[in-house]
Every structure is written in C-alpha cells, then in structure tokens.
Amino acid sequence: MTAGSPSIASGSLTGWVKRSLFKNWWSGLITIVLLPIVLLAGYRAFLFFFVNGQWDAVTRNLTLFMQGTFPRAQQWRLTAQILAFALAFGMAAGTSRASARDRAQEAGLPFHEETARATLARMWSLVGFIALLLYFATIDETGNPFNPFLLVGSAVVIAIIGFQAKRMPRRIRNLGWLLTAVLLLLGFQVVSGFGADDWIPMGLILGIAAYAVTPTPFAGALPRVVTRLVAAVVVAFTVRFVYSAVDQPGIGWDEWSGLHLTLMVSAISIILAFPVGLLLALGRRSSLPALRIMSTAYIELIRGVPLITLLFMGQFVLQQLLPQGTDLSRVTRAIAAITLFTAAYVAEIVRGGLQALPKGQTEAAQALGLSPAKTTRLIVLPQALRAVIPAMVGQFISLFKDSSLLTIIGITEFLGVREIAHAQADFRGVSIAETLVFVAIGYWAFSFAMSRESQRLERRLRVSR
Amino acid sequence: MTTTKPRREVARPPFWRDIRVLRVVGQVVAVVIVLLLLRWLYNNLVASFDRLGIALNFDFLTSQTRFRIAYYNEFDPSSPVWQMVLVGIKNTFLAGFFGIILASVIGLIVGVSRLSDNWLVARLATIYVEIFRNIPPLVIIIFFGFALFFFGPFPILSESWELSLGGNNLLILNKDRWAVPGILATGGLTVFWMILAVGVVATYIVWRWRTRVFDDTGQPHHRVLWSVGVLLGFFLVGYLATGTPLEMSWPVITEDRRLFQGGFAFNWGFISLTAALGLYTASHIGEIVRGSILAVHGGQSEAANALALSAFQRYRFVVLPQAMRIALPPTINQYLNLVKNTSLGVAVGYAEITALTRTSIGNGRPTFQSIIILMAVYLGFSLVISLILNIVNRRFTLVER
C-alpha cells in the first residue's frame, strides 16, 4: 500500500481524517487552503455540466460527431461494422482467455476467471462514455435512423456470443485468432467495399493461414515449403476470384469522418506502421553497416520533426513526389504520413525489446545451429515482441491522440467535425466549450481505457516472466 | 560432446554462398535500391515542379514575404522570407522555453504531490495527471484558444480588466492580450549588459568558492545569499554607472480605449499554446517524477528520517537529487516532445514557424522547400536540446566505482 492511499477500513472516519488530512500543521494548512478551492471548482463544474451548459450543440449533432458526413443512406454499413467488430473483439477475448487458462494449467498455476463485472470495471471509462452517448441520444433523436439502444444491446449480445470461443477445443484454438482477423477485415470491408481490387488483405490473411495449416503429405518427394506455398497461392487466387465475382464497391475512407474516422485512421496506421517499424528496428540492430546507418538516419530524422510537418508534406508535396497522374485522396495521404511517422517510433520500441533480450538466447540458438534468419524469427522476435506489447499500446494511445492533428489539414475527424457543428446557424460561436469538453471526454475515455489495459499487460508480463 | 571429428581443411564455399561476399552484395543492393527510390522521387518532383513552373531552389527566401504577422506590427510585409523564418524560430523558441519552465514546475509539484501523505493533495494530483495525460494536446490548446479567449469570458480591448496599484497597471487582461509591466531600455545598454555578464561570472566563482569552503571546513556556506548579493551588487553598480539605462514600462490603454501601449504583452495564441502544452507535458513529467522518487531506494528515506531530517530536508537533500538522476533522460524526451508540439500553435494562430510556413505556402511559396526548411528548424531544435541536456545528464550521472 502506498503512502497516498490509506485505507478507510483500518479505523474510524475521524481517525482517517486526522491521519490523511491533518497529519501535521503543514498538511492541515494545505487541506484548509485546498478544500474550499476544490469545493468551489466542483460546484462550478457541476453547474457547467448540469445547469448552465448548452449541450444542444452536442445532442443535436450526435450522429455528426460519431460518423461525420458519412452518407446517411449507407448507414447499415456502419451498423454491420460495429456488429462484426463486436463479434471479433468477443472472439479475441474468448480465445486469449482460453489460452491463458491453458498456459496456467500447463504451469500448474491456479487460474482465476475474470468476472464480467471486473471486465466492465476495468473498462469503466469506455462504458461511461457509451452511457453518456446513449443518454445524449435520448435527449434528441432528430434524424437518427436506428435505435442506439438496440445497437449497443445487440453489440453486447454478439460480443458475448463471440466470447464463447473460449470453449473451443485446444486443437483448433488458432482458428479463433483466424476468425478474429477475418471478422475484423470483413467488418472493415463491409464499409470500404468488396471491390474487385480489394482482395489483397483477405488473400493475405487466408493465404498465410493456408500456409500455416496445410499438411505436407508428400514431404519426401517435394520440399514442404513448396506444398505450402502452392496451397497459399491457390487460396489467395480463390479469394481474388470470389472478390471479382462479388465486386461491390463501398464507401471509401475519403467519405468517413467523425469518431469513426479517428478510430479507423489510428488502427490502420498502427497496423501498417508495425511491419515497417519492425524492419527498421532489425535494420538498426543489424551487423551490416549500410543497413544500420540508413535505418538509424530514417528513425532519427523522423523522430526529430513534429508530425504536423509530415502531414504538410503529405498534403502539399506527396502528390508531386509520385509520377504524374497519381491521384491519392486527402485521407490516404494523411494515413501515409502518419504511418511513416509512427514506424520510426515503433522501431525504437521494438529495438528496446530486442536489446532487453539476454544475449544467451541468440547464443543458444547459434549453438543449436540455427541460421541467422531462423534465430531472429523463432527465438528473438517472439520474445522481444511479447515484451514490447505494453509499449506498443502506449504508442497506439499517442497515435490515437495525434490523429486529432488531421483537423489542422482540414480532415473532419472527431475534433474536426466540431467545425461542421459550429457552422450551423444555431451554434455559430456558441457552445464552444461544450463541444470541446464532449470531444475531450471522448478522447479521454478511449485513451484512459487503453492506458489501463497497457498497465495491466505490463503487470501480467512481469509476473509471468 | 564426447566425440570430436577431426578437423578438415575447409575449402572456401562458392561465392554465392560465401557469407563475406553475401554481406557486401546485400549492402550494395540495399543502398542501390534506396538511392534509386530517392532518385525516382526526386525526378518526379523535378518533373512536376517543371510542369507547374516552380523553381526547385531556395531563391524565394530573398523575395518579399507579402503578408503581415499578427501582433507583430514591426514586421514589414516587404521584408524577405528569411526574416519571416527568423521571426518564426524566435516565437517557437519562446513558446518552447516558457512551456518547458511551466511544465517542469507543475510537473515537479504534481509528481511530489502524488506521493503526498495528504489524501486530498494526492488525489487531486492523480486526477490532474489522469485527465491531462489522456487528452490530445491539440484539444487542450483549442480549448484555451477558443473556449477561453476567442469566444470566452474575457472582455474586448476597450473594456479590459485592469489591476492597478498607485496609478500604474500591474496587469491588463483582455481577449487579445495579457500585459504585465516590462522593462524599457533608454540607452547605454551595451556597457550595462557587459557589466552584468561579468557579474554572472563573478557570481559563479563566488558560488564555487562558498561550496569549497563548505566542503573543506564544514562552515555554513550560505551560497545562495552570497551569490544573490554579488549579482545584485554588480547590477546596482552597473545600473548607476551607465546612467540608469532601464526604466519600468507600464502597460496602458490609451484615452480613447482603442490602443494598447507599453509593458510586456503576451498574445492569446502564445498564452493558449504555452499554458496548454505546459499543462499537458506536466502530467507526463509528473509521472516521471513520481516514478523516479519511488525508484529511489526506501532505505534512503529511512536513513534521512533516522538522521532527524525534516520532510523538506529529506526531499531536498536525499530523495530528489537521486530521483533527478533517474528522471532526467525521460524528462529530456518530454522537453523534446513539447518543443515539437509547439507546432500546434498553428491551430490558434500563434506566429511560430509552422503557422508562418503554412501562411507562406498559402501565399504561393514553393511547398517542398518551405517544408524542408520547417523540418530543418525542428531538427535543429531537437539537436540543440538533446545536446545541452546530454551534457547536463553527463554531469549528473552517478560515477560508479
């Protein structure tokens, strides 16, 4: 127990007050000075939130804040996306719960199932934010084509159904992860569309899965790699065929905005930045001086400049750096800039993980006769990457916060949609503080939940080491 | 291993399997690919700039800026672009400098408060940290800039709030600017600054001398008293000798309530940017301070208690010096972040380098070169800060025996 949190239970209330508010004259003086200020500030905050605040600008524009100028006729796509993501998150949680239980069993340790209540308590900031949204939705319902309560309710039910993946037998445990990936992608593409050219991510996921699970019956006659590669290619081409048969373009990310765009841009950028950052980190740790110097130069240059300069590069110059006629949209260019920026930071995080790995691990791998590539792939990376998960979550949080910079280059993400709201005749120049506080609460809820999650992961990794 | 094979003379493998050859070839290939990529980008850039009729050089730096800078009436729109860049660098520096001071002070207070025995203090500090750490700095800046200033409760210039004492304004607050009394030079300043510089050196020497006396003899050093005395003495002597070259400049609003004169004024963009970044970064620094204090071994505190040091002495002489050593590297990182974040001043129209560059691009300056200069400026700032603080860090690092 730290000095900052004496427990009330360990004595009477007066005892607690005396111990933690008036321990000595110095502490007592601070309490006496601070208490009125705190009470006054609390009173003013209460007035702002419940009495004086003009929250119309938020309640009447709730849909705007959530999805911005997304075409209202295509609303079902977002609903489908939320449900698919709910299923995917539930499934991921269930699968990871099951593997944690298995690991504990193997190690002969007791495993405590976390109750649903504990999960909610852990995510209290997000739960609170959703509750706030629902409350706002009841105040004003203009132009809201679907019932938000119904949506949240069905998302929860579907997530719970997905969570039952924890009952999956161990043999097919990895299927849970595969399904999660596929569902996330489907959820993404139900909005962005299943055009004939959009097969690549799905082909990649299913191809890799096919590569991993294909049995190799002709191991004697053919090298195993060949059989597996053939399977992967066959699967990928099947996916391609299916996509060109379906060919249903959707709503591209140029038309996304609001909180939806903020979340999507952050997720897309970190996913794209990860492989780049990984390669940069390996390059920086490489024994080949040319690779080392180039990686180091890139990382240090990018880390020395603010993100906004890269966003400017993306907006003003990127088009000219590419051949004539390439026409990238505003959002694409922004995502490219954020990805290149984040990659440098991911590289430094991964490098930290690589450096923290005891040298004995590589030496043992070499002693076993593994090639450098295999040493990296099988021994070094799995341990290093596991160790950097908390830091990666931290990087994701700062990326999530940085995505607010898109406002400056005129993209209407969660912070930028405020300007649309304040362009309406009713809200021109009024309720500025209210919309800002609402946006701040939104950012805060997500960042806070993720930072708690990162702390929890850190504790868990430390314990299990 | 129980059996050992007899050593064979190994023939060199064929060159396509020779690791020494492969290493060289791999590096050459990597370098060539990167160079080709850069050349391809450059060629595209040249081609499209040719098409647009923009020259790919830095000649535009000497052309006229052609726009005014808000709150910078002395800036002449006909002065060359490089002067605008200098103004931007200066303003970025100012925001970064004051921001760092603010963030350090609040961060230290918050970090120590989080470990306070006083429940209220510790709880308030925790709430502060958890709120500000998890909100994007841009949201905080815009909140200050627009909810507090632009559309906020502050009065317009003609109705400014004035706090005066004996007919002199100590503070003027309005939507645009906050002013405090300043110091005005009336001439003969060079000599005065030189005397003051000598004074600073003398102060340092006196400081070292008192420290040595303390170290050698154990007599009380009173080095703060001595140093302040010496500095004040030099200041007074210099001030009187050069014919009182400085005078107070009180901020005033003219009779017709339309103009603003004298004093030292901060514009709203600067206040918003500095305060917001200070508060945001302070939450991170607070966590660093707290972590570093916790990382100081508990025995140190107990030993200080056993020596009957007061709580203040315990912190000042035992815990904080050791915590500082741990806290310095991550704090440097936060300072660097703060300086980079001053680029968000563009959102509140503060004339720092990013905002000026954007306006200048909007006025038809070549995009690529302008942004390259912008990046170079920030790289320069980053380098200088890490350089200075690395030197400091080296002084603080524990020399282990």
- Which stretches of chain A are poorly predicted, pLDDT < 50 over at least 5 residues? none
Helix and strand content put the structural class of chain A at: mainly alpha
Report the order of strands and helices of chain A.
HHHHHHHHHEHHEHHHHHHHHH
The CATH superfamily of the domain at 252-465 in chain A bears the name MetI-like
Helix content of chain A: over 70%
The helix/strand series of chain B, from N terminus to C terminus, equals HHHHEEEEHHEEEEHHHHH
Please, what is the oligomeric state? Answer: heterodimer
How is the main sheet of chain A built?
Answer: 2 strands, antiparallel
How much β-strand is present in the residues of chain B?
5-15%
Which word captures the global form of chain A?
A: globular
* Overall SS class of chain B: alpha+beta
Based on DSSP secondary structure assignment, what is the total number of beta strands of chain B? 8
User: What is the CATH domain class of the domain at 252-465 in chain A?
Assistant: Mainly Alpha
Whole-Å distance between the termini of chain B?
41 Å
Q: What descriptive keywords fit this protein?
A:
A: 465 residues, mainly alpha, MetI-like fold, two-stranded antiparallel ribbon, B: 401 residues, alpha+beta, 3 domains, four-stranded antiparallel β-sheet, 11 helices, 8 strands, 63% helix
Question: What this model shows, in words?
Answer:
The complex is a heterodimer of chains A (465) and B (401). Chain A has 465 residues and is mainly α. Chain A has a domain at 252-465: MetI-like fold, CATH 1.10.3720. Chain A contains 20 helices and 2 strands. Chain A has a two-stranded antiparallel ribbon with strand order 1-2. Chain A is globular and about 80 Å long. The two termini of chain A are 23 Å apart. The mean pLDDT of chain A is 89. Chain B has 401 residues and is an alpha+beta fold. Chain B has 3 domains: 17-52; 81-181 and 250-396, MetI-like (MetI-like fold, Orthogonal Bundle); 183-249. Chain B has 11 helices and 8 strands. In chain B, the strands form 3 sheets. Chain B has a 4-stranded antiparallel β-sheet with strand order 1-2-3-8. A two-stranded antiparallel ribbon of chain B has the order 4-5. In chain B, strand 6 and strand 7 form a beta hairpin. Chain B is globular, with a radius of gyration of 29 Å. The model of chain B has no long low-confidence stretch (mean pLDDT 88). The chains are: A mainly alpha (465), B alpha+beta (401). The interface between A and B is large, with 59 and 64 residues.
